[in-house]
Design a protein that fits this description.
The chain has a single domain, classed as Double Stranded RNA Binding Domain. It is an alpha+beta fold. The protein has a four-stranded mixed sheet, covered by helices on one side. The protein has one helix and six strands. A hairpin with a 6-residue loop joins strand 3 (34-35) and strand 4.
């Protein structure tokens, strides 16, 4: 049971950062998804892939994983690149 610890990045279509301040612990999928015979929906028997835990800091997420014996991989936070431009630049 391996988990990923990462800080989610903001989507390009969103301007706010309210839900992107926390670190997330998410389990790696143990079973690949396959289509259901009746409905055709993708699914698996892996219930751990449905679990997403949020933590205020990266250290809190690592402490949780260590306390419960979960193997983890920390994914580095992506740096933000701001492109500062004026509104008038849209018309040049």
């Amino acid at each position: 049971m391996t988990a990923r610890i990462y800080k989610p990045s903001k989507h390009a279509m969103q301007s706010g950062k309210a839900k992107y301040q926390h670190w997330v612990l998410e389990f790696e999928p143990a079973d690949k998804k396959r289509p259901d015979a009746l409905m055709g929906w993708a699914g698996s028997h892996d219930t751990q892939s449905q679990v997403r835990l949020r933590f205020p800091t990266q250290e809190a997420a690592i402490d949780y994983a260590k306390r419960y014996g979960i193997d983890y991989v920390v994914m580095a936070e992506q740096p933000r690149e701001l492109k500062i431009q004026a509104y008038a630049d849209n018309f040049r």
